[in-house]
Structures are given as structure tokens and as C-alpha cells.
């Protein structure tokens, strides 16, 4: 899994999660990427916070560095909720909801019986364990109501 920082033509910044760099390029070429804020399809990669953080560390005065970390203010609870809401909305908006049919379709995709695409849905703990035993990677997420993301 690779995470890229992206930006649309309207300068909205967001993250994209991809299987690998080739998956990002394929989705970009096929016009599958869109901004979760404005639905703009013109998307580009931008420098990540990791790269910016590394540059800041290199430029920071020695007094501002403690244990190899640049002193900063931790994010507020509101900022954390906003970031979580954005990630969840992007994951859900960028994938097909299969409901209870998730496990069956995950298998079909894994065994190349259905087109590869991002999916989400509902699966029991036993279904997730069985998928894992077959070598199918799933990411269990909590079931949240939209108002829980506000």
C-alpha cells in the first residue's frame, strides 16, 4: 500500500491510497481519480508531509530539535476528527458498497473472476478470517453512521 498526497486544479489537498505506484498511474490515466471536495478529475501529486517534515528537520535550529524530532504542537481533537472524517469519506466515496456481498466479491476479484476495483461492505469476523487465510487482504473498519463523522 502506498499513500500519495494529491491536489486538484482547485488546490484542494487530499490523500490517495494505492496498491503501488503503477496502480496510481493507471487510475490517473483512466480518469478514475477525483477530488473529494469538488469532484475535479484534474489531479496531481504534491510533496508529502513526510518529505516536508524531513526538510523542516534539516532546516530547524539545533535548539528546536529534541530526540531527533522537530518541536511542534500536536493536532487538536477537532483537527484529528476532521482528518479522520476526510479519510473515511474518501475511502467510502472511492469504492463500491457491496453490503453483505463483500466477502464473495473480494474472492471473485482475488481469483480474477471479477474486475479489480476498490470495494467495501460488511463481513463477519469469521468471513474476514477466512479471507485472510486465502491470502486476501482486508482492512476491517468500524461501522459508522454519517453523523458520527461530524
Quick structural overview:
With 150 residues, the chain is of the alpha+beta class.
Widest sheet: strand ordering: 2-1-3
State the shape: globular
Uncertain segments: 51-60
Overall strand count = 7
Over all CA atoms, what is the radius of gyration? 19 Å
Class inferred from helices and paired strands: alpha+beta
What is the count of structural domains? Answer: 2
Distance between the termini: 28 Å
- Determine the strand fraction and express it as a percent band: 15-25%
Pattern of helices and strands: EEHEHEEHEHEH
Largest sheet: 3 strands, antiparallel
Helix content: 25-40%
Helix count from the secondary structure assignment: 5
| Average pLDDT taken over every residue | 79
Describe, in plain words, how this protein is organized in 3D.
This protein has about 150 residues and is α+β, with helices and mostly antiparallel strands. It folds into two domains: about 1-70, no CATH class; about 75-150, no CATH class. About 35% of the residues lie in helices and about 15% in strands. It has a three-stranded antiparallel beta sheet with strand order 2-1-3. A hairpin with a 4-residue loop joins strand 1 (about 1-10) and strand 2. The chain is globular and about 40 Å long.
Salient structural properties:
globular; 5 helices; about 35% helix; about 150 residues; about 15% strand; alpha+beta; two-stranded antiparallel ribbon
Summarize the SSE layout with pairings:
Blueprint: E1 2-8, E2 13-18, H1 21-29, E3 43-45, H2 49-59, E4 65-66, E5 69-70, H3 77-93, E6 96-97, H4 102-110, E7 119-120, H5 125-133
Amino acid at each position: 500500500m502506498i499513500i500519495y498526497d494529491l491536489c486538484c486544479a482547485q488546490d484542494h489537498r487530499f490523500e490517495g491510497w494505492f496498491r503501488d505506484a503503477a496502480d496510481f498511474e493507471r487510475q490517473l490515466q483512466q480518469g478514475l481519480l477525483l477530488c473529494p471536495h469538488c469532484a475535479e478529475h484534474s489531479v496531481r501529486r504534491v510533496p508529502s508531509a513526510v518529505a516536508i517534515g524531513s526538510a523542516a528537520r534539516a532546516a530547524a535550529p539545533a535548539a528546536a530539535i529534541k530526540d531527533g524530532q522537530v518541536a511542534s504542537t500536536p493536532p487538536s481533537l477537532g483537527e484529528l476528527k476532521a482528518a479522520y472524517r476526510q479519510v473515511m469519506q474518501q475511502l467510502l466515496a472511492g469504492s463500491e458498497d457491496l453490503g453483505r456481498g463483500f466477502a464473495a466479491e473480494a474472492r471473485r476479484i482475488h481469483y480474477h473472476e471479477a474486475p479489480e476495483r476498490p470495494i467495501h461492505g460488511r463481513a463477519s469476523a469469521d468471513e474476514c478470517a477466512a479471507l485472510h487465510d486465502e491470502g486476501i487482504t482486508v482492512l476491517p473498519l468500524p461501522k459508522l453512521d454519517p453523523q458520527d463523522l461530524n
